[in-house]
Design a protein that fits this description.
six-stranded parallel β-sheet; globular; alpha/beta; Rossmann fold
């Protein structure tokens, strides 16, 4: 699970070309009076974080000789734990340079200093509106970070936007960066590196989460449907049977966890709240106060992970419960009911006008969460739909 963000991994040819391009961009930016911003795009699992962590290691190796002040930001507490843990294994890296964006912004405003190079992982999690609860009093975190830096390198995936208060689109990014009159470049990673899956599996997930389309599957039995491939992809009729198989795989290969869309009640009140589907019943993950990430803790095989727990991480196997907000519509299509999505906090309305169609944006958040959850598994992915009409449709339409 830590390998995807470990900074000394070897790069593929595609990644190495982009890495070299970004390094050249950083050197030019440090010698310029103009702001420099580089945006690295790519779907979940394409290796964006691999490039970013290796890049930051190289930048920090050079920091002593070129006397630069650099930071690595991520607005994800579980990922931040991993980055800080990894930093302790490299003499060039300093743990206090790995921060949440709000901490960075407030620290530099307080000291009156400016950073040289700032890299931002999961930039789609940056706040795009003020959030006094999280001590962010300005308007937009990316805008503030660019103001406080010479060079900004950010990783972005529009399909991983999960909240209205951090709702991003390419047009909004263009507007924010354009206001700073920055030298602005982009690159996109296209090769899926996390999932050891064939194109038909990736296409099935993309059609579901992009187009609300249910494609046919190749094989099936009374318990589950699957594709004829080495990647262990299964659609289960019964959530308890899916969980039993996941526990078996966890005992064999480790780092296998069950997760769910936010379609079941959960409140941060210190009590356990359960996801129940027939004979299946497990509690949601509890708030993780330790320095060990949720999926690294052996006991969390007995909990349900949320999108906020596992985003950005690799698992060997992932089992995904897709809840009541997603249901069978007709023919090969599904529908999304935003009223059944329990994470209404994610839908709190923004104050600007970037969101032209609020309901469509909310649907997109639900589909984005499904896309992220379904692309966690390196070796396999199991899926269960609350609406059994979806399984029945797929079982009746095997190609």
């Amino acid at each position: 699970m830590l390998e995807s963000v470990f900074p000394n991994k070897n790069l593929t040819k595609e990644r190495q070309l982009i890495f070299d391009k970004v390094m050249t961009f950083c050197k030019e930016g440090l010698n310029s009076n103009q702001k420099f911003v580089f945006q690295l795009n790519g779907d979940a699992g394409t290796g964006k974080s691999v490039i970013l962590t290796k890049l930051f290691l190289k930048i920090e190796e050079l920091a002593k000789q070129n006397k630069t002040d650099n930071y690595f930001l991520v607005n994800h507490p579980e990922l931040l734990k991993v980055y800080q843990e990894n930093a302790g294994q490299f003499v060039e890296l300093r743990k206090n340079r790995f921060l949440r964006p709000t901490s960075f912004i407030n620290r530099l405003h307080k000291t009156g200093k400016k950073a040289d190079v700032v890299v931002i992982d999961e930039a789609h999690l940056l706040l795009s509106d003020s959030d006094h609860y999280n001590n962010f009093t300005q308007k937009n975190q990316l805008e503030e970070i660019i103001k406080l830096s010479k060079v900004v390198i950010l990783v972005f995936d529009e399909r991983q936007v999960l909240k209205m208060k951090s709702y991003w689109s390419q047009s909004l990014l263009d507007t924010i960066i354009g206001k700073q009159h920055a030298n602005y470049q982009r690159a996109t990673l296209r090769t899926q590196m996390r999932m050891q899956a064939p194109e038909e599996v990736i296409k099935w997930i993309d059609d579901l989460t992009n187009n609300l389309k249910l494609d046919k599957v190749n094989q099936g039995n009374s318990s589950y449907l699957s594709f004829n491939s080495n990647y262990d992809f299964r659609i289960y009729r019964d959530a308890e049977k899916m969980y039993e198989k996941l526990r078996d795989m966890n005992s064999k290969v480790g780092e296998s966890r069950i997760v769910s869309t936010a379609d079941y009640p959960s409140t941060l009140d210190g009590k356990k709240h359960y996801v129940t589907e027939g004979q299946f019943k497990l509690p949601w993950d509890q708030y993780n106060y330790s320095n060990v990430t949720w999926a690294q803790k052996p006991e969390t095989i007995n909990e349900i992970g949320s999108i906020y727990t596992v985003q950005g991480f690799d698992l060997n196997y992932v089992a995904v419960i897709i809840g009541p907000s997603v249901s069978y519509k007709d023919s090969d299509n599904i529908k999304v009911d935003i009223s059944k999505y329990e994470d209404q906090e994610a839908f709190k309305k923004r104050h600007d006008n970037d969101v032209s169609n609020l309901d469509e944006s909310k649907k997109k958040i639900i589909l984005n969460s499904m896309n992220v959850l379904l692309k966690r598994g390196v070796k396999g992915c199991f899926v269960y739909f609350h609406d059994d009409k979806i399984f029945n449709y797929l079982a009746d339409n095997q190609g």
